[in-house]
## 1
Amino acid sequence: MRRAEIVTAGLLALLSMYIMWKSTELQIGYIRGQGPGGGAWPFWLAAICLVSTGFIALNWWRGTSGPSQSDEPFLDSYGRKMLVLVGGGIVGFVVLTYIFSMYGAMALFLLYYIGFLGRHRWWVTLILATAIPTVFFFFFEALMRITLPKGMPFLEPFFNYMNTIIY
Amino acid sequence: METLGLLADGFWLAIQPINLMLIIIGVTLGLFIGAMPGLGSVNGVAILLPITFLVPPASAIIFLAAIYYGAMYGGAISSITLGIPGASTAVATTFDGRPLAMSGRASLALITAALASFAGGTVSNVLFTLFAPPLASVALNFGPPEIFALMLLAFATFIGLSSDDISKTVFSICIGLVFAAVGFDQISGAPRLVFFDISGFLHGINFLVLAIGVYGIGEMLWTIDSTRGKITTSEAKMSVKGIVTDAKEGMARSWRGTTIGSFLGFFVGILPAAGATPGSLMSYGVSKMLSRESAQFGKGHPEGVAAPEAANNSASTGSMLPMLTLGIPGSPTTAILLGGMVIWGLVPGPRLFAEQPEFVWGLIGSFYVSNFFALLINIAFIPLFIWMLRMPFTILAPLIFVLSIVGGYATTRDMHDVWLIVGFGFAAFFMRKLDYPLAPAVLAIVLGPIAEPTLRQSLLLSSGDPTIFFTRPVAGPITIIALILIFLPLIKKVWDRRGGRRPSAAE
Amino acid sequence: MTFNYKLRNALAGATALTVAFAGTIAHAWEPTKPIDFVIMAGAGGGADQIARFIQSTAEKEDLTVRPLVPNNKGGGSGAEALIALNGTKDPDHTILVTLNSFFTTPLRQENLGIDISTFTPIAMMGVDPFVLWVHKDAGISSFEDWVSTVQEQDGEYVMGGTGRGQEDSLVITWLEQNYDLNIKYIPYSGGGEVAKELAGKQIMATVNNPAEARGFFANGDVVPLVAFSDERLPNLPDVPTIKELGKDFSYYNQRAVVGPPGMSDEAAEYYRDLFQQIYDTTDWQEYMSAESLEALPQTAEEAREYWNLQIENHKELMSKMEEGA
């Protein structure tokens, strides 16, 4: 926990500096007769961010903030496993939308999470993994008219067919 | 008394069988659209607009008003049951709604939210009926300096939200304000902070992207980690008797917040540049400040649900006022309603009340009726939402993740934002573990896009002279109150340190 | 130009080929999926309202087999919309509702790499004129009075608009240059807000579309002084044009629909027919006259000429603006 605190503070300080640098693309000063320039708002706020990461580091050094006193590991074995399985699952879900469309990826993610991580009965898993994307499809495409990603071209005939049903 | 006669005609119009049916369908649809994170009244109203060509204009606007009301009620549902604010107006509802749901009191939170929404809607309808035209001229007198002063006040009421670690709170507020500035600088007309020249940053970072990332992904990961995945969200059983008891408890414990929210929400809501979100945030902050149990806020106090919910409903009705009387949309939803009115051949503006009284009073009549049905239908559906919460966590969690990703995409229809959500989610998980408060960042990204342009517009007006915030008759007092509120806790802190030295606290 | 022409033909050919392989080629092309109806502005503004009106009309008359799905991409003065169209994977199911930022944004942000001459013209739904408005309490009744008032207040005269580089600011810059004025310009987020700020006397004058100021004008809060149109506006017959006052200048905001680069000819034909049908509906005709839009029918070739003319005009206006800044 103690190490994570200072590493995070360091990363956030870098982020603040990057934003400050990026803000200088527009004027960051006070333009006479006009008030602050276009970059001033993000620049000075990022500067305050940088100063606060400095204080976070100071508190770490003095050991006055909660995490800097804690000897617990930042991520124990459960936490690491959870992050890989759940977090990785979410990232996988998003990546798969490019290939299998939002609906296909959703079905695969639900199969993975409910069936593999949740260890529910296979028929519960199967019903949910088909029913939820189907409901979403009709809700978004037909009722709300919000089109979600359709994946790669090989799915196009399928969705074109679905379109003839819903429109 | 002419008003009452017109209003009675309006009521009569709203309870015609076809209109009543439209109200019931509209409210139910709106409730579900609002409950879906990422979708709000904007989507409901925009998408159903074309359908309304099938019915006469008066029925159409009644239908849209019903969807609008339903969605406002629905926003609280995802805030409470899923912990994700479905719309910016429901951010403050998560602060106490979520803890209540986690401690098995979801039904209390949902019922309190419904009752407070009803109260807020009713108060604003009455104010609207009695004072619409004079209030419109009040709204006209609010220029950029006044709106900025109001934003300052909104921030001030939230100083109390800060956690013990001041430096982390300051970081959170400022990073939220920085994210609010991403995309485009309205004043100089130039792109700004387009990180790595990725075109997705041109439209800025939507509030929902940060909120869904933080609450839908980050908070969920944190919950799974900290409970070792063995979480039971709610054991509450639903019965009619339970609803009645909860309703009584909710009313008894939250009437103060409801009252504050109803009035404050309305007055902030009628200002075109402010709207329902600052209204609900300020109501939460003010209720907390004035409450005798303010320490309970944020840990699951019904008043913390009632105040923002009363306010956002009240403000939503309030934001109809500038739309109808000035032709100025106070929110994206009213902007689309405005478009609808133009399509129906009505000219919103100062003449509307005089030239189209049947339409205006029909609409206001339908507000009253929609509000009432929204309450009934919402309460009828509460058992369904509670049942959702009783699902095994390994089914509820993936459902929340799916809703987060889909809702995040639907907001801007850009995969870029989905990746941002995932990124914010992981960052929020790590920062949450290290006790960084994240609610201030979410609030800042909501208020920032109003605060920065109005600050700079004001300074342009005054040729760079900051005294403009103190010398204008309305802005001056608001600014001074806000500054006092902001510095009060700091002064107190310094005072405390000088007086009783605490042995371990060094900050 | 020849290069672009070849490129366009090549792209069109390639698209036609893909369509042929997909097996959907028919004599008349029809959309097979919802049409991405990109709007070059955020939700709620004037351009958005027009786009939604078009969508609603198409829906009402049941003109399309697949719905037009509005998609607001107003980021970076429309840069986001242009980038999205330029890079679309499905040019036959994507169309864009434009305003003048179609011309100005690629000129202002050259690093975007957008060449609008590669885009496919579809339909010109009308052009929106600009009018100079003041508050009735200012007691100004003619353009000459206004000019002398602004000159007296040298630099303290406050006008509002929708942002530097936006349509109204170009007109204001033109006024500054041609009448030797010095105006303080406050950017707001949309035309409706600008109209409200004028009615609330936060600002002293605006250059705004009649559609935005309509309600306040009907109520007598604001007074039109001069129109930047070629002819007097039918809804404001007593307001002189700037041409009558001796300057050869007019300025309109275009309300046009364009397709992305590489849209197939069949699809372009389909959309041209569709928007012609929408244009001919009584709803649209009534909307145009109520909102003071002017007709500017043009064929695809005329549209391209119009684009070139507009690019030249805007280059000139914008270089003046930079000199002034």
## 2
Amino acid sequence: MSKNREFLWRRLHSLLGVIPVGLFLVFHLSLNFTATGGSEAYNDATGMMELIPHWLLLVVEWVVIYIPLMFHAFYGVYIAFTATHNTKRFGTFRNWMFRIQRMTGIFLVVFVAWHIWQTRIQKALGDEVNFDMMADIVANPAMLAFYIVGILSATFHLSNGLWSFLVSWGITQSPKSQKIVTYISMAFFVVISVVGVMAILAFV
Amino acid sequence: MAVEANTGRIIDVEILRQDTENGPTRWEKFKVPYRHGMNVISLLMEIQRNPVTADGKKTAPITWDMNCLEEVCGACSMIINGRPRQSCSSLVDKLETPIRLEPMSTFPVIRDLQVDRSRMFDALKKVKAWVPIDGTYNLGEGPRMPERKRQWAYELAKCMTCGVCMEACPNVSEKADFIGPAPLSQVRLFNTHPTGAMNKDERLAEIMGDGGLANCGNSQNCVAACPKGIPLTTSIASLNRAATVQMFKNFFGSDHMVD
């Protein structure tokens, strides 16, 4: 990387985590949630995607999802491995959030890679993405557990990431505003976790 | 002549020792006779007077840094029972025993408990943590600083570059080149000063480079550890906002410098 560009990369990493990756996660989990209405509702909802011309869908996928996600993921791995965790000596709430943010981030790189392989790449290889595909995957209890941990990691990483996003861009400065946003972000975590976990359980 | 009160109490002390820079480390145990009002410095002085380990072996006296002995110079910082703090203001009465002393290993260890805090002073030079007033002629008086602002800025000025926040920060280490909380807060201090603010874009430019402001990971350990209660994380968040504005100015602005 060119000299003296680190500030830019870090800010870009922070921004991309929210727009578009964070927005995409909320959209993705919401779409999954239609599975709670049964297989037909889910297939109808995901079928909407098929109405978009294939070339356009590919462009949107790369520009809105893959490229920002890959940058956020790989630069994030670099950030995570430059940290020296010290929660043993400083067991404060924020220090634990700092640590869990990095732990969930690393786990998500593995989980998301696996998830893309199991769904998007299989689709590219000729499989059909529908209710039955997910139902087959989570029929395996170990896979279900892996998915639940993955979903919770993603919802946590986004919720807590929103908190640090607001600090990193200088929006929340005072300790009071940072504290209130902590509560809001944790409430957000609970809500999207419920949505995400209910959705995955609908496939069981 | 008053003889020191022999309380009969013995304090167990464990010290992480290191003879040379990058050399091997070892723990040594000591038994020190307790005196009233002892702090960690007087404990170390006692060992210096009689450098014998708990199992009776003669050893080299311990090396450490100290200066003011009233928690304003920052020289005597070390890790005491797991927490970085000043040894002068660490009273033995308030510490759990055995008292474990380690150097702040986020800095290069010179010997025993003595560390090299040069990176902090280098950082202060890098961010131009001063008010430049030198010129070829008398520049006259600068703008006045409102009294309330002065009182507030004084809190930031309490920083003694002791290194405790650097030690506490998980992003300051040999594997990461983060400038650390203390020099960042100094940027806020000097950018607040009415004369210092005349060069605020230069300081911001420095911390918007490699290893700068954006490398903060918001663990907020610094503000929890700072012995002077400096609002380091508020300083960082405030600089984040200033940097965001500066970023837009740099890109979209025409020929802006300071304002």
